[in-house]
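Design request, tokens follow.
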């Protein structure tokens, strides 16, 4: 039997109430999506503003991802005994502060510190928000409820990132992070108004949450995300620079290419959630193979903007992996739901750090801007290998 031990709140029966909760949670996803992906799209802008080259600016993105990796488990464990709605407000408050400081960072070194701080609450927010969303949805619709929160993140890539890019080019890159801080404050208000006011589980404790770390399937699922997702980020982090250096695209067209990527993520999120609610974990394997194939097309399409936009749409579709892995962790984490859910985003942002880092090494070694795609193919296939191990061993122990 699959190990399902969801620590859920009493169901919310009103459709309006459910919709308002999901909108509130998705707003946080939107804010996080803007800061995470816009930082990549405006990389040339803040690289110039801080006086560093593109590979060094990539370390700013990695610093944010490192904050997610470190912050998610720590905040999830420390907040085990707190009501989820209060945790969500607190996490968004810290997120608002980190982005506000990023907007006024005086030097490259301070920018690294402030981006790390901004990333600390990211994973814990998504983890707790996913549990709240799952708790108000029927079991057979869990993945789609969870994907609604990630829908905020994908909409950020369609709407928020292009808007942030336009703002950055028109008024300066610092305004991008200031806008994110305002979005975080808006999320705090919405969560305070609409999130269910459920008390923490009476048996919740940091020790119980740490029990997730004893489960091999938890680690394997996290490994799928930490490696497999890196392929998408290896390309995305340097997409703006590739568009300028290889494709010959000017600043005016950049936001539209990123919007196409966002449309791909949006559609991939919907289709991935639909597939996971029907076939379960195998949907992850299909998405990883999809990503590897799409990334392999990238170098051949990079010289033509229209071909590249089609491939970017396909690469974005691999983003549907997030919701699939989130619900997989709910199935294998037992009573340690909060930590496992938060760790999914540690894994996601390990990929966010690993992909740009390895992609930057390939560029710095002289292999060219499109070499990031081959790094991405390797990471996607590496994630698929881990998926196969997780799937086969999970079936034997089920």
């Amino acid at each position: 039997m699959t190990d399902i031990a969801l620590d859920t709140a009493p169901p919310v029966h009103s459709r309006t109430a459910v919709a308002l909760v999901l909108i509130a949670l998705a707003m946080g996803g939107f804010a996080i999506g803007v800061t995470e992906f816009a930082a990549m799209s405006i990389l040339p802008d803040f690289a110039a503003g801080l006086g560093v080259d593109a590979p060094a600016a990539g370390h700013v993105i990695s610093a944010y991802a490192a904050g997610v990796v470190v912050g998610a488990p720590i905040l999830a464990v420390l907040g085990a005994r707190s009501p989820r709605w209060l945790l969500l407000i607190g996490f968004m408050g810290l997120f608002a502060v980190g982005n506000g400081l990023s907007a006024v960072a005086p030097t490259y070194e301070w920018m690294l510190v402030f981006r790390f701080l901004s990333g600390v609450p990211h994973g814990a927010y998504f983890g707790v928000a996913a549990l709240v969303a799952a708790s108000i949805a029927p079991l057979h619709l869990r993945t789609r409820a969870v994907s609604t929160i990630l829908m905020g993140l994908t909409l950020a890539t369609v709407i928020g990132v292009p808007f942030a890019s336009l703002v950055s080019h028109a008024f300066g890159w610092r305004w991008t992070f200031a806008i994110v801080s305002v979005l975080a404050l808006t999320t705090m208000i919405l969560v305070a108004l609409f999130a269910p006011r459920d008390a923490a589980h009476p048996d919740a404790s940091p020790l119980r949450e740490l029990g997730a770390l004893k489960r091999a399937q938890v680690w394997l699922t996290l490994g799928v995300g930490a490696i497999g997702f890196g392929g998408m980020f290896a390309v995305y982090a340097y997409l703006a620079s590739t568009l300028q250096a290889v494709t010959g695209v000017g600043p005016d067209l950049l936001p539209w290419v990123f919007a196409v990527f966002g449309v791909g993520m949006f559609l991939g999120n919907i289709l991935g959630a639909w597939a996971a609610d029907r076939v379960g974990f195998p949907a992850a394997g299909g998405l990883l193979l999809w990503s590897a194939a799409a990334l392999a097309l990238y170098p051949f399409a990079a010289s033509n903007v229209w071909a590249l936009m089609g491939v970017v749409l396909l690469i974005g579709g691999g983003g549907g992996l997030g919701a699939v892995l989130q619900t997989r962790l709910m199935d294998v984490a037992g009573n340690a739901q909060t930590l496992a859910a938060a760790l999914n985003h540690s894994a996601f942002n390990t990929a966010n750090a690993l992909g740009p880092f390895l992609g930057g090494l390939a560029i710095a070694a002289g292999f060219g801007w499109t070499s990031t795609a081959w790094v991405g193919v390797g990471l996607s296939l590496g994630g698929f290998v881990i998926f196969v191990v997780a799937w086969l061993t999970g079936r034997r122990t089920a």
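Comment from the thread starter after seeing the answer: thanks! Residues 16 and 22 are 10 Å apart (CA to CA).
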